[in-house]
Design brief:
Length: 382
Amino acid sequence: MHTLSELPPLRVAKVEAIVLRVPIDEPVQTSFGIMHDRPAVLVRIIDSDGVEGWGEIWCNFPSVGAEHRARLLESCVAPILQQREWAHPAEAFEELSRRLRILAIQCGEPGPLAQAIAGTDIALWDLAGKRIGQPLWRLFGGGPRVRTYASGLSPTGPETLAAAKHEEGYRAFKLKVGFGAERDLRNLRALREHFGDGTTLMIDANQAWTPEEAQSMSARLAEFKPAWLEEPIAADYPLPVWRQLAKSISLPLAAGENLRGTEVFSDAIASGALSVIQPDLGKWGGFTGCLEVGRRAIDAGKMFCPHWLGGGVGLVASMHLRAAFGEGDYVEVDSNPNLLRELLLPPSLNPVEGIVSLSDGPGLGLSHDPDAVREFRRPHAY
């Protein structure tokens, strides 16, 4: 982890959770649930000199999850952050994880608390980058160019949405499956017929199948040459089950958005079951945790493709995370309309031939206007 020798100690003066919800015309469908609006929880941290850092907490499910995570941030995380100075964002991440570990066990919420810590870590790194005037991609030793793919292609007419995203500059696409074999195959066939064999396609089952179903479906999907098959089975199946599935099919397996903890990721990488490692830095780890996961994944010869399906702050953070390791693999960009992404992203982050170029702006490089999303703010206080 970087020493940030130029950074004076971080003294947190204020921590704020901002809950946003945007209505949508078409629900976002997955094999396990439907999103009827687009939520986001932004984390705003202000230091004693008035410098702001921004982060984002994953909050897509359940539908009441955004308000709950905002309360966890303000009631559990903020008081610890404001107790002392921090020499480094990683120091705060480790102390928060240690101090809240038993509470997470006691209340049965290790996931939501880890998500609140993750969003906090993103904001602290943004703050650190701003304090020393460096973009995070440079601070992490990487470059500004990031390869992207358009994800979230729904089971209804995915080729139409994919064609529109191609016009916007995307060159790789991920289809959601798990909606019945014939429908899944029909959709994948439509994409291949539209784009031809030269376009990169991925498949995401969102944990829809049993191991037996995954083995059967992968054999049928293989003719369309997807780059990977993502979460075909439940993420909490033991690693031997994942290993056996990997041995029995020809498609590379991808997972990681539902894993939590450095050693859990290390075990998954070492197992040989996964070809693609996909941590979600707003779900667990922030930059502090996921940079280490990325290093271990790449050292092991795996693809490192951060997962993200939320607002604009988390998306830019995911791009800086991937950029830390060079242009190489992909960052996920949701295809579905989301004003909480569009209103918070600068136009410069539109892809050209699938490539996004991050700015030289300090931290995350965002200079968004909070008033742009003010109408979508929702109360979350008890």
